[in-house]
Write a structure and sequence with these properties.
The chain is an all-alpha fold and 354 residues long. The protein has a single domain (9-269), classed as Orthogonal Bundle (Catalytic domain of cyclic nucleotide phosphodiesterase 4b2b). The protein is built from 16 helices and no strands. It has helices at 9-24, 34-46, 56-62, 65-69, 75-90, 99-115, 121-133, 143-158, 166-190, 205-234, 243-263, 272-285, 291-301, 309-312, 321-329, 337-342. The two termini are 34 Å apart. 36% of the residues are buried. Bound molecules: zinc ion. Residues 1-266 form the PDEase domain. This is Putative 3'5'-cyclic nucleotide phosphodiesterase. Zn(2+) 1 binds at residues 11, 47-48, 158. Zn(2+) 2 binds at residue 48. Keywords: Hydrolase, Metal-binding.
């Protein structure tokens, strides 16, 4: 990953950690096939590969090589996807699994990464909102639903900065706007109009953050919470749990209030009581409440070295998918995928054979 102010390896680690929480703390991971869970994490890790730090709008305005290559259609996301495909081929990532499983893996990663283009956001939100109005809609009934769920989980993770505790959320904002303003400066130098969020001379970060949380982040996390609730309602084993996502919504409200306070010149001190409430909520979530301890860990390491992902997070995965992921799928001494799947088949869907 290039060393951009925002789109760098730290963002990738952060997004992957959030993906972990949204799938594991909700126990959705228990309902996924191992190949789907593996694809979900690889999709998160690869979603911004070789990001140049300049947006699709810039690429298209400048008619860069990427814009020309993809005819202006999600040039960055298509580039990230092509980088994944090249890396997967170079390291024979899928060499040890059956063709049908490899195809399923690529299908999920493709849909997830393309969905991160915010130009596709409104259409995706309309699609899932319309689906959820049908009371019989089961997001985990088939592969189409799973793909949509995982795409939304990655979209949530990709803009999850404001779901972190206030001090961490603020530090993310600093680097997001550093990258935005650098692009705005380039536009200004080119004599183009500068987008409001990229204009360092006029943008108010507090005001922008309130709008971003209210109109983009919160509705997206609310949709994910609704999907989790629907899964829980339709899950006769009562496995899926939406409370970790509701905890995210709580933090979003709290952070939005703090930006509003700052906007109105009010003090944001003495708000520890709100964090105590948050801790109490995390305790209620119990063993599903991975979001709270992970937030603490993020807070701890954000100023220093990134965590050892496998030790801190994958080590906590309870389902046998973890073993599949860490020891089998990516290992040259991989156990047969069919053997692994057979051990789970009584509890899971059957993948398409073609
Ligand atoms: Zn990203």
């Amino acid at each position: 990953m290039p060393n951009n102010p925002y789109h760098n390896s730290r963002h990738v680690t952060d997004v992957t950690q959030c993906m972990y929480t949204l799938l594991l703390a909700t126990k959705v991971a228990h309902r996924l096939e191992p190949i789907e869970l593996a694809a979900a994490f690889v999709g998160a890790i690869c979603h911004d590969l070789d990001h140049p730090g300049l947006s699709n709008t810039w690429q298209n305005n400048e008619q860069t090589e990427l814009a020309r290559k993809y005819d202006g259609e999600s040039p960055l996301e298509h580039h990230h996807l092509d980088e994944f495909v090249a890396l997967a081929a170079k390291y024979d990532l899928l060499g040890n699994i059956e063709p049908a499983q490899a195809a399923r893996f690529k299908e999920i990663v493709t849909e997830m990464i393309l969905a991160t283009d915010m130009a596709r956001h409104a259409k995706l939100m309309e699609k899932i909102t319309a689906s959820l109005t049908d009371k019989a809609f089961d997001p985990m009934h088939d592969e189409v639903g799973i793909n949509l769920l995982l795409a939304i989980a990655l979209k949530c993770s990709d803009i999850s900065n404001q779901v972190r505790p206030w001090t961490v959320a603020n530090r993310w904002n600093a680097v997001v706007y550093e990258e935005f303003y650098a692009e705005g400066d380039l536009d200004r130098a080119k004599g183009r109009a500068v987008a409001p969020l990229q204009d360092r001379t006029s943008n108010d970060v507090n005001k922008s953050s309130v709008g971003f949380i209210r109109f983009i982040v919160k509705p997206l996390f609310q949709i994910y919470a609704d999907i989790m609730k629907r899964c829980a309602d339709l899950d006769d084993r009562s496995m899926v749990d939406s409370r970790a996502v509701e905890e995210c919504l709580y933090i979003l409200d709290d952070n939005m209030q703090r930006y509003e306070n700052a906007l109105n010149g009010m003090d944001n001190e003495n708000t520890e009581a709100q964090f105590e409430t948050l801790d109490a909520l995390a305790d209620q979530v119990g063993d599903g409440g991975a979001a709270a301890p992970n937030c603490v860990e993020i807070n701890h390491w954000f100023g220093g070295s990134p965590p050892n992902f496998r030790t801190l997070y994958l080590g906590q995965i309870e389902v046998d998918s973890a073993d599949f992921w860490t020891n089998r799928l990516l290992s040259s001494s991989s156990r047969s995928t069919a053997e692994n799947l057979a051990s789970k088949r009584s509890h899971t869907r059957t993948l398409k054979s073609g």
